[in-house]
Amino acid sequence: MAPAPLLSVRRLRVHYPKRGLLPWTGTPTIKAVDDLHFDLQPGETLGIVGESGCGKSTLARALVGLQAASAGSIRFRGQELIGLDRKEWKPLRREVQLVFQDPLGSLSPKMKVIDIVAEPLKALMPELPADQRKARALAMLARVGLGEELADRKASELSGGQGQRVGIARALIVEPKLLICDEPVSALDVSIQAQIINLLADLARERNLAMIFIAHDLAVVRQLADRVLVMYLGKVMEQGRADDVYTRARHPYTRALLEAVPVIAADGEKPKRRRLLGGAAIQPGQPPMGCVFHPRCPLVEHACVQSVPGLRKVEGAEQYAACHFVAAGG
Ligand SMILES: Nc1ncnc2c1ncn2[C@@H]1O[C@H](COP(=O)(O)OP(=O)(O)OP(=O)(O)O)[C@@H](O)[C@H]1O
Ligand code: SF4
Ligand SMILES: [Mg+2]
Fold first, then answer.
1. What is residue 66's predicted lDDT score, i.e. its pLDDT?
2. Largest Cα–Cα distance of the chain, in whole Å?
3. Helices 160-172 and 113-124, interaxial angle, to 10°?
4. Residue among 105, 184, 176, 109 at smallest CA distance from 140
5. Residue 243 confidence (pLDDT)
6. Distance set, CA 199 to CA 101, 145, 195 (Å)
7. Alpha carbon of 52 to those of 32, 56, 214, 239: distances in Å?
8. Does residue 57 line the site of ligand 1, with CB under 6 A?
9. Is the dihedral of CA 35, 50, 312, 243 positive or negative?
10. How does residue 184 score in pLDDT terms, banded at 50, 70 and 90?
11. Would you call 128 exposed, middle or buried from its count of C-beta atoms within 10 A (0-12, 13-18, 19+)?
12. How far is the CA of 57 from the centre of ligand 1 (A)?
């Protein structure tokens, strides 16, 4: 029997009201997350990938209680999280932490590194004496590769990579069981990206930390992810073991993402991605009929416009794809 999941998400919906609409102009909501299912086991890393606007950050915020869900269920160690108030969330803050793309962006630029890292201890473990708090913060800084000499620096004096290390230290200091990383490396140079990804992989392994790692790009999550979930317009297009998804992607959208390899850039330019997907960019306020991917799918047929494909298990693999033309398995 499979072990009980640490996190279990079922039929999750997060719909935002559309602004500036006249009453007769159609659907009044943006379905940022629409009917999402997945499980996460203790110590497992799930990579979540999709283009801008597909609902990744909305999902991350809903998982940590910063965004109200419209429907569905999020269970952490069997406890339902949807509908909890701030007070009920407090003990869970030690268990579930979030790392943002710009983790220091919401803090004062004058705040010292040591205080940034120690702050969650102050808020969530107030019984801890100040000297122990400081010792733990210094140890955590050392673990993420930042020496004691950085402890008294101000947030504004850090490089992008150092800032992200501080963000990781701040999230992990309370020893969570689940870490949700929302595009933690997207704003960093490629060489720094690799260092941060290696650091997160090491930390996850040594702490048996479950991790959700969000990125635009399948290549970024490859090194980390045990399983991968591909999103499009708030829905799961494909999910499965990382090896299966990378070597035998079943959904046309996943295949297009995999084929969007970087193009060699001229000196001093950022690498570009070959654009493979035709059609208009996604508009979350106006989801297409039938399969949401049909306006851009190279394999589209009449049935794709008529009905929404359910997420089907792929024959012979722990892999699921939402496409009418994937051979279903038991
Ligand atoms: N607070 C909000 N109110 C209304 N609409 C929102 C809100 N937050 C996000 N949206 C909309 O929901 C959709 C999903 O946004 P979200 O930020 O979750 O996407 P994303 O996949 O994280 O994108 P990116 O890769 O650019 O970060 C978008 O259409 C966005 O405009
Ligand atoms: S259901 Fe149709 S449009 Fe959607 S991914 Fe499959 S082939 Fe493409
Ligand atoms: Mg986002």
1. 94
2. 68
3. 20
4. 176
5. 94
6. 16, 9, 6
7. 11, 8, 11, 18
8. yes
9. negative
10. very high
11. middle
12. 7
Q: Would the pLDDT of 272 be above 60? A: no
State pTM to two decimals. 0.92
Distance (Å) from CA 326 to ligand 2 centroid: 9
So what's the pLDDT on residue 259? 86
Instruction: Provide, rounded to the nearest whole percent, the portion of the chain with pLDDT above 70.
Output: 88
Shortest-distance atom of ligand 1 to CA 18: 4
- CA of 70: how far to CAs of 13, 50, 67, 80, in Å? 5, 21, 10, 14
Cα–Cα distance for residue pair 153/168, rounded to 1 Å: 17
Cβ 239 vs Cβ 323: under 8 Å: no
* Residue 17 CA, closest ligand 1 atom number: 4
pLDDT surpasses 80 at 27: no
Contact 164, 103 (CB under 8 A): yes
Reference 177, options 98, 94, 120, 117; nearest CA is 94
Tell me the CA end-to-end span of the chain in Å, nearest whole number: 17
If you measure from the C-alpha of residue 2 to the centroid of ligand 3, how many angstroms do you get, rounded to a whole number? 31
Closest CA to ligand 1's atom 5: 16
Q: What DSSP string runs through 253-267?
A: HHHHHHH-PEEPPPT
Nearest Cα residue to 319 out of 253, 227, 233, 215: 227
Structure confidence at residue 17 as a pLDDT band (50, 70, 90): confident
Average pLDDT, the chain: 90
pLDDT at 108: 87
Neighbours of 83 (CB within 10 A): 11
Which token pair is 2?
Answer: 């499979």
Report residue 178 CA to chain centroid gap: 12
Triad 60, 321, 243: Cα angle to 5°: 80
